[in-house]
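Hi R.,

Here's the chain you asked about this morning:
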Amino acid sequence: MFREVLRDIVQRAEGCLGALIMGTDGIAVEKLWQPGAAEAVNKSIADLEVAVAEFASLIKNARRASGEMGFGRLDEATFSSESGVFLLRFVSRDYFIAAVLAPNGSFGRARYELSRAELLLKKELAT
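And the predicted structure, written out as tokens:
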């Protein structure tokens, strides 16, 4: 099921280089990369995966801070750089979905696909 959800994200969001289901500990549960993804952003797949894992640490802290400051639960985060865009959406307290886009990728469609994937995975990844 996980792989099919990721495939839908990668296929439906133009410019999506890959998608991952990852724990907030930075360990990927499942991942799917487009052929040529690394070349599209001049990085290795390992570099992209490390970036997502590092962003996991940031969003975990941001989520805690958001709750402590009374802003409520943080559901989504975006990191944009010269090399690409990283969209992360929480599925549960311990898991999130990430989409890695080329700089010119379809941001809005990727956000929609992550929201859709969240609904499909919520039961499977409930903590």
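The radius of gyration is 14 Å.

Let me know if you need anything else.
M.
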